[in-house]
Amino acid sequence: MNAERDSWLLSADFEVPLTRSLEEAVRRGVPLYFVLEFELIRPRWWWFDAQVAERSIVYRLGYHALTRQFRLSFDGLTQNFESLDEATRTMASVRTWRVVDVARVSAGTEYEAQVRLRLDTSQLPKPFQINAITNRDWNPQSEWKRFTFTPQIPRNGR
User: Could you tell me if residue 155 is inside a domain?
Assistant: First the structure.
């Protein structure tokens, strides 16, 4: 994580949890929704941990049969790609995502951060949601990536 002006920014690379069944579904026109989630927690020994920040981005991955292009939408933006691989690589590479305001964290305090990219099975069409309950191909697990984060005192004295 890096500080820029009034925010801490996260850059990370993920492996998109896309099974063969999900690839086939998206190629047949079933939109897939992925959620990028971030949490920043301040551990406390005397009480429950304090949730400092929680952010998420929802990606919609679809296929447009007429143009034979894959479409990735998030935060009001839409990009078209020639291949599914290109679309998933773009989704998997997160750069300079504003995750927490500088004012929300204290310099020198240790925080626990966690981030993951997961398939949102609740947004699948209803018949596919049943598959997601009974079939692992339709509900790939995505583990949290955890790391400690200790903000430093800014060099310019702010």
Answer: no
Q: Is residue 113 part of a domain?
A: yes
The encoded tokens of residue 105 equal 């964290």
Say if 61 falls within a structural domain.
yes
- C-beta separation of 80 from 55 below 8 A: no
Q: How confident is the model at residue 17 (pLDDT cuts 50, 70, 90)?
A: confident
Residue in 19, 20, 34 with CA at minimum distance from that of residue 117: 34
Q: Looking at the domain assignment, is residue 158 inside a domain?
A: no
DSSP conformational letter for 143: P
Range of the domain at 139: 2-149
CA–CA separation, 142 and 118 (whole Å): 5
Strand partners, 3: 8
Instruction: Kindly report the pTM of this predicted structure.
Output: 0.86
Please state the domain count of the chain. Answer: 1
Q: How far is CA 136 from CA 11, 22, 58, 117, in A?
A: 29, 11, 22, 17
CB atoms within 10 A of CB 52: 19
Query: Sorting pLDDT into bands at 50, 70 and 90, what band is 104?
Result: very high
Q: Is the pLDDT of residue 45 over 80?
A: yes
